[in-house]
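Project standup — Tuesday

K.O.: blocked on the structure for the chain from last sprint. Re-posting the sequence here as requested.
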Amino acid sequence: MKSKRVILTIVLVGIMLSLTATANAYVVFRTWPNSNNVYYVTTTALGSESVTAFGNANIAWNNVANANKNIYRSGSTSATSVSRNGTNEVVKYYISSSGPLMATSVWQSNGYIAEFDMAINAAFNWRTDGAPNAYDVQNCATH
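H.V.: unblocked you, prediction finished:
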């Protein structure tokens, strides 16, 4: 009787695990140079509502207790893709309909982060007003 419970438990756990949605995240441990502020620019393709949503996400991060970096927007760019060009950029372009919602590229120099670019995948519907069937810019940017 006890072995039947063990087998049943294993089967139920296996079923539960197979029904769990998968998520992917990649974490790379690198550090910023000794500066308390990080600045970025946003592509003009985002629109003012999305720029505001990114700003609100920055405020959330900047208000974290013991945060040693503050993130600020410093202007706009006409960039349409990510590239190492000396500027931290947030751009929007089509990556893939099965690809990530957002992807961040990081370049390093001498063991420190030298630059990052964040790509927002234009294959997906993005909103700032909580509309159904769309991804929320601020929530994803904060993540």
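K.O.: great, moving the ticket to review. The longest helix spans residues 2-19. The chain has one domain: 30-142.
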